[in-house]
Specification:
Strand order of the largest sheet of chain B: 6-7-8-3-9-10
Number of strands of chain A: 8
Helix content of chain B: 40-55%
Strand order of the largest sheet of chain A: 4-1-5-6
Number of strands of chain B: 10
Strand content of chain A: under 5%
Largest interface: A-B, 33 and 34 residues
Strand content of chain B: 25-35%
Number of domains of chain A: 3
Radius of gyration of chain B: 19 Å
Structural class of chain B: alpha/beta
CATH class of chain B: Alpha Beta
CATH topology of chain B: Rossmann fold
CATH superfamily of chain B: P-loop containing nucleotide triphosphate hydrolases
Number of domains of chain B: 1
Number of helices of chain B: 9
Oligomer: heterodimer
Structural class of chain A: mainly alpha
Number of helices of chain A: 32
Shape of chain A: globular
Largest sheet of chain A: 4 strands, mixed
Distance between the termini of chain A: 27 Å
Distance between the termini of chain B: 43 Å
Order of helices and strands of chain B: EEEHEEHEHHHEHEHEEHH
Radius of gyration of chain A: 37 Å
Shape of chain B: globular
Helix content of chain A: over 70%
Chain lengths: ~775, ~260
């Protein structure tokens, strides 16, 4: 690749885009204008919020006690409200001549209790409130007497009642209440009620205080022990926490948006104008063109993001300082300088990734319009990934660090918050995932530019029928790389949805049936169906051929001998990534169910035999067969194991099954049959079941087992070090024997289009 | 200069399975000669020329341009060729000078040489008035002129005109044809594809008549007239195409 040409193309594209009004608008004008406009709108809205007073309809104001007085001169006593609040509460007092008022009061008198809920009375109030234009209605149905226990007691004594009956009195007393009716569906009404309640609450406290002090009761009797909460976070910390949630999202969303239009214009637009062919017939190589264009898109993506950040920052600071009083003391200063640095650093890979994906998708489009169709789903897919750090519960751990965009976002959040120690722990996986994603997407762009079917795509009449016919006519003896990966994806998606649909069964029978059905439905059926439909030879696609006795016995022996190694590896994984609470819970449920199993044979059937047969058909059968058309068998084994691992869901299991998958892949490729794989898988799983249920009596009575196994706590048996290592050596030797086997390559008729594409994306040197 | 042997191009098509755009064509074009590819739309002319300009890869067969193979040395081949396509294919948001300068740089020309070459070309094609005009503001004729100058900026030994006159009015088309004629005088090898008989008759030294990916007849215009005893080239063209179409239909019915 000549960098001179790349630079030339980059400079031209950049100049071209800068002369395009649409691009300039989205990249520069929009952010510069959008945020000030939004800020202005927010200020306007804030002003509306201030200007609207609420009208409160007070019914039965005469029933309020005179001391301490709540209502004074047709308004609330200034003692309980600030001047501002006073101005915002307009009281409407009903007088005696009001017929509607009379009606309500009459009804109040008739009823002992004011019904809650949409009863007739509520309806009456509601219609009256609406008719008179009140937002809040306050009803004081009966004269309120201030609680005065001493008075009451003396009254009781006077009348000669039993002291017991005070209970009734108290109950009755609680009925004298002030009712505040609000319409919570209406913001104005809700806020008015809040203000009024605030004043009422202050008045209530005052009455209590007055009553207590009039009887010489200390105030602390009711206030209890004071609790004071304080925020130890400093101002910068609070700001960083706020910024760390907002800024990464803004950076990402704009770097994606900024990549959109240049990407479409640079690919689909050029195709539309016919200049693409001219460029392709110039000496510049395809890769040079692709990289030059990619750099342009990256530049625009970054520029959009930075401009938006700056514009938003300035507007934000201005608006926040203006609105400070209404926002309840939320002060957002300028983001810390270090935070800007991290953002800019993260922006580079993010822009590169989004730009490359957008460009590759846009390269496929024939016209700008078509390009937009492709990029909308891209937006939809990346949105949830970008939303992750906005979730308060999202944490950077090994699992999340492996999710492409999200891991980087979470790390960025951590860095802005200053949690460097946390971030450094996961910097490795996050950077690795990001770099791999960037590299893959750049390769995708280059491969798109190298593909003439992509560049000179004619519009085709598409119908499901003809497409299906095409697939049937084009299918090979064995599955293609594309259909193998499709099968893997189908399995993953099916597992994902089934995981939501099923409920934990109660008995072992239910558990067994459920496990087997899930395996059949999500793993075996997709693979078998695809083998039948997408290949001409389903039997060899699923590797359903016999194998020699030495191979079969070697597989069983290898599984036994490698078991100590796998057990230790499992222990190591569990130590590095301790199982989460959910997982422990699940294990507990499963082990509880297992106690009701009819016997060990049943557990082995469910945990060893069924998964061995069904998973091998799909993974070592269909998927591996398809991926074997890649140039390197190791590549095929690696990808198969990766899918096999991911299909197991939990991170710990993923790592363990990935390792098992590698061994199974080697056996499958070398023996060209899944029978040894099934045997290995079955033996491996059975041993795990047996080991976990090994009983002391059995082990001690066996000369062999008592040598190989030991127990630390008398319950769980472990492999002893020396025998374990010896077994592992034998196991590794057996695997080497498998690798040395002469695996005569299956003659393939023709490499399919997808496998060629795949080989371009993963160009590994051919195996010698 | 250009040697094409058994060139075949098969596109994959969802409906018919495969579509043979070129069915093993062979021809040779010499320097100082204008070679015409004549055929109706869909005959495979553009596919053939795109393979020559290495934009497409042939399914089988070879093509050698000025000693370089299109499959093994595509980059050198692209340096030998100036390609003018049917759509004017120029960048709207660049001036004619900028655009031609850009392509000159892409062809790796040294700045001084490029400057001299461009000055002389702009002089020759009377384009100094539109030197700093954005291409989007130009008429189709001007655009095609820019496109031709763009193809010639690196002084390639081979020039390919793919239906370069389609969509142009008579005046501009004549201008283009005149340019092509001049190029031939300079000893360049010109390949000119068209579906317009009169252009081919006027320009070309040798003609290949194509239909459905096959060359039906090839030779100088006099050769063809003599061989098929038909002086009117237009009539000859029409006859050959209709015979070929009938054969194709017969084949289709046989297949059913």
């Amino acid at each position: 690749m000549k960098w001179k040409n790349v630079k030339l193309i980059f400079k031209r594209e950049l100049r071209d885009q800068l002369r395009d009004r649409r691009t300039l608008f989205t990249v520069a004008i929009m952010p510069l204008v959008l945020y000030p406009l939004m800020g202005m709108a927010m200020l306007q809205v804030a002003q509306f919020m201030r200007e609207y007073p609420t009208k409160v309809w007070v019914i039965g104001a005469d029933n309020m006690p005179t001391e301490p007085a709540f209502l004074v001169d047709g308004g609330i006593n200034p003692e309980f409200v600030t001047d501002e609040e006073q101005a915002l509460i307009h009281l409407g007092l009903s007088d005696e001549g009001d017929t509607e008022f009379q009606k309500i009061v009459k009804q109040l008198r008739e009823q002992d209790d004011i019904p809650s809920g949409p009863a007739l009375f509520d309806e009456l109030i509601k219609t009256e409130m609406k008719r008179r234009g009140f937002d809040v209605a306050v009803i004081i149905p009966s004269p309120i007497e201030l609680p005065d226990p001493l008075q009451r007691r003396s009254k009781n004594l006077d009348s000669g009642d039993e002291p017991d009956s005070t209970g009734d009195q108290i109950e009755e007393e609680s009925k004298t209440s002030i009712y505040v009716f609000q319409n919570s569906a209406n913001d104005k009404s809700r806020m008015g009620a809040e203000r009024f309640n605030g004043a009422l609450h202050k008045w209530k406290i005052k009455t209590i205080k007055d009553t207590l002090s009039s009887h010489d009761v200390p105030l602390s009797l009711v206030t209890g022990i004071g609790i004071t909460s304080a925020d130890v976070a400093d101002q910068v910390g609070i700001q960083a926490a706020t910024w760390s949630k907002i800024l990464p999202f803004i950076i990402m969303i704009w770097s994606l948006t900024g990549a959109f239009y240049p990407a479409i214009d640079l690919c689909a637009g050029e195709k539309e104008r016919g200049t693409f062919e001219t460029l392709l017939s110039s000496p510049a190589a395809r890769s040079e063109i692709a990289i030059g264009k990619l750099l342009t898109v990256i530049s625009f993506s970054m520029a959009t993001s930075i401009l938006n950040l700056i514009s938003m920052g300035f507007t934000g600071m201005f608006v926040v300082s203006k609105m400070g009083s209404t926002m309840g003391g939320l002060s957002l200063g300028a983001p810390p300088l270090a935070c800007i640095g991290w953002l800019l650093l993260a922006l580079i890979p993010i822009s590169a990734l989004f730009s490359a994906v957008a460009l590759a998708a846009a390269a496929f489009a024939r016209s700008s319009k078509e390009g937009q169709y492709y990029l909308v789903p891209l937006m939809m897919i990346s949105m949830p990934l970008m939303m992750v750090p906005m979730l308060p519960a999202a944490q950077l751990d090994f699992g999340t660090s492996l999710i492409p965009v999200s891991g980087l976002m979470l790390m960025l959040r951590g860095l802005i918050e200053g949690q460097y120690a946390e971030c450094i722990r996961f910097a490795g996986p996050v950077c690795a995932v990001t770099i791999v994603c960037c590299w893959l997407s750049v390769r995708w762009v280059v491969s798109q530019f190298n593909s003439e079917t992509v560049l000179f795509r004619a519009s085709e009449r598409v119908s499901i029928g003809s497409w299906f016919k095409h697939i049937m006519a084009e299918r090979d003896q064995l599955p293609s790389v594309g259909s193998a990966i499709l099968c893997g994806v189908v399995i993953l998606v099916a597992k994902f949805f089934i995981g939501f649909a099923v409920q934990a069964p109660g008995s072992f029978g239910g558990f067994a049936i459920q496990t087997v059905i899930i395996l059949v439905a999500t793993v075996a059926v997709p693979a078998i169906m695809m083998a039948l439909v997408l290949t001409r030879n389903a039997v060899s696609s699923l590797k359903l051929r016999g194998c020699s006795l030495p191979m079969a016995s070697a597989a069983v022996l290898a599984a036994i001998c490698l078991n100590p190694l796998m057990t230790w590896f499992t222990g190591l994984v569990m130590q590095i990534y301790p199982p989460s609470g959910d997982l422990v819970q699940l294990e507990r449920v499963v082990s509880h169910i297992l106690t009701s199993a009819p016997g060990l044979w049943a557990i082995i059937l469910v945990f060893a035999v069924a998964p061995a047969v069904l998973e091998e058909i799909a993974f070592r059968g269909f998927i591996l067969s398809g991926l074997q058309s890649l140039r390197s068998k190791w590549q095929a084994i690696l990808i198969t194991s990766f899918l096999f691992g991911i299909a197991h869901g939990v991170i710990q299991q993923t790592m363990i099954t990935f390792a098992v998958g590698m061994i199974l892949g080697v056996i499958a490729v070398q023996t060209r049959s899944i029978i040894p794989c099934i045997l290995f898988h079955m033996t491996h799983n059975s041993l795990a079941v047996l080991l976990s249920s090994a009983k002391g009596s059995v082990v001690e009575n066996s000369a062999f087992l008592s040598q190989v196994l030991y127990t630390a706590n008398g319950e769980n048996y472990q492999y002893a070090i020396i025998p374990g290592i010896l077994m592992s050596v034998v196991g590794v030797m057996l695997i080497v024997w498998f690798i040395r086997l002469d695996a005569t390559p299956v003659v393939r008729t023709e490499r399919s289009k997808l496998s060629r594409l795949f080989a371009r994306i993963f160009p590994l040197k051919p195996q010698t | 200069m250009i040697h094409v042997r058994q060139l075949t191009k098969i596109y994959k098509d969802i409906h018919s399975g495969h579509f043979t755009a070129l069915n093993g064509i062979s021809f040779d074009a010499m320097p100082g000669q204008i070679y015409g590819l004549l055929g109706p739309n869909g005959a495979g002319k553009t596919t053939a020329l795109r393979i020559l300009s290495t934009v497409l890869k042939p399914t089988s067969g070879t093509a050698v341009v000025n000693g370089f193979d299109v499959i093994s040395h595509p980059e050198q081949v692209r340096r030998q060729i100036g390609f003018v396509s049917c759509n004017t294919a120029i960048y709207d948001r660049m001036t004619s000078w900028e655009m031609i300068h850009y392509f000159g740089q892409l062809y790796g020309m040294e700045p001084e040489k490029l400057q001299i070459r461009m000055e002389s070309l702009f002089e020759k094609f009377q384009m100094n008035e539109i030197r700093n005009v954005l291409c989007s503001k130009m008429s189709t004729g001007m655009k095609q002129k820019v496109s031709i100058v763009r193809a010639m900026v690196h002084n390639p030994p081979v020039l390919v005109f793919d239906e370069a006159t389609s969509g142009l009015d008579i005046l501009v088309a004549r201008e283009v044809l005149k340019t092509v004629e001049q190029l031939c005088d300079h000893g360049k090898c010109v390949i000119f594809s068209s579906h317009i008989m009169s252009e081919v008759k006027r320009l070309c030294d040798r003609v290949a008549i194509m239909n459905r990916g096959n060359i039906l007849a090839e030779g100088s215009i006099e050769d063809l007239s003599r061989k098929y005893e038909q002086d009117d080239l237009e009539e000859l063209f029409y006859q050959m195409i209709s015979v070929s179409e009938k054969q194709h239909e017969a084949e289709l019915t046989n297949m059913r």
